Amino acid sequence: MKFTKKTELGDPSSNKQDFIDINIKLSCCRYWLLDMWDCHDMVFPFWRIYWNKNLGGELRHHKGIYKMSPDYIYIIAPFTSFSSQFSKKHVYNTGIHVSGKHLTDDINEADFEEKSLFHFFVHFNLGVPFDHVYPGVFKIKLTDYLKDRLHYLTKKLKIENKNFKMTFNLKLQSFIKEAISNIGAELWKTINIDERVLNVLRYIEINIHSKLSNSNLAEIVNMAPNSFARLFRKEMNITLHNFIQKRKIARACELFEHSEKTIEDVTFDLSFSDRYHFSRVFKSITGITPAVYRSGRYT
């Protein structure tokens, strides 16, 4: 009797292949009829994809202004400071002011095309290290593939807005992967970072609820604290302290979106000294208070 050669992980070849695992974690996907979209100086710890079916939407990042076209999608990297507005109904120059409703199948779009914005958006994370890239807004031309996915997703969202079937989830994830693959190779430099930094990144993610000190993290890779701090900043373009703060606030946002935890609960869970300290750090990173974020008054 002949036995087949034992293969590792189902690979019959001796040539080792290296793949990069991207784990998409979806926060929301919606199709809205917006009457107002005056949102200023927003910074959030997740990726966003925006698409407007009609004209009138604008994004601002630093001094750049993106007049949103239906022929493009707009991808916003985590921790990017940006503002948005619907030019036909622009009222506020500060704060976050959004009004609108879920776009349903029984709404005649022609009745609203001139006075409202047909706005599709999805918020998601890709996991470490892909959620820590250089901030920016990326304008991506719609391909036939992306158009087909958008048509499917928006059509389904108009019918069902809560309980998504497997097909919808798979097509949404394929849409996201195709979209981000068009950004450009320069964005993904963080995947080639030093192995010692990667080990600490993994440790931080697993132990994000704990107090994390520079010296304890340096110990993990047998380095002096100052040497590791320099290495981390060189590889990640951010200080270790600021990175930990951003990851804790990212986790706080997840807890607010996917649990019933109070601000006090999240403060305790993430080992902040008190609610005041947590709120101060949260606002310094996101631009809004935990109370506003938890209320969902943003898009």
Structure explained in plain terms:
This protein is an alpha+beta fold and 299 residues long. It is 36% helix and 21% strand. Strand 3 and strand 4 form a beta hairpin. Strands 1, 2, 3, 4, 5, 6, 7, 8 and 9 form a nine-stranded antiparallel sheet that branches. It folds into two domains: 25-188, Jelly Rolls (Sandwich), CATH 2.60.120.280; 193-295, Homeodomain-like (Arc Repressor Mutant, subunit A), CATH 1.10.10. It is built from nine helices and nine strands.
Please render the helix and strand layout as text.
Elements: E1 25-42, E2 47-52, E3 57-61, E4 64-67, E5 72-76, E6 82-86, E7 96-102, E8 117-125, E9 137-141, H1 144-159, H2 166-181, H3 195-206, H4 214-220, H5 225-236, H6 240-258, H7 263-269, H8 275-286, H9 290-295
Q: What CATH architecture label of the largest domain applies? A: Sandwich
The general outline is globular
**In the CATH hierarchy, what is the superfamily of the largest domain?**
Regulatory protein AraC
How would you classify the quaternary structure?
A: single chain
- Percent strand equals 15-25%
Q: Which class best fits the helix and strand makeup? A: alpha+beta
Unreliable runs: 1-5
Major sheet: size, sense and barrel closure? 9 strands, antiparallel
Number of helices: 9
DSSP, total strands: 9
Q: What CATH first level of the largest domain would be assigned?
A: Mainly Beta
The H-and-E topology, N to C, reads as EEEEEEEEEHHHHHHHHH
Estimate nothing, just give the exact number of structural domains. 2
Mean pLDDT: 87
What distance separates the N and C termini? 64 Å
Helix proportion: 25-40%
Radius of gyration: 21 Å
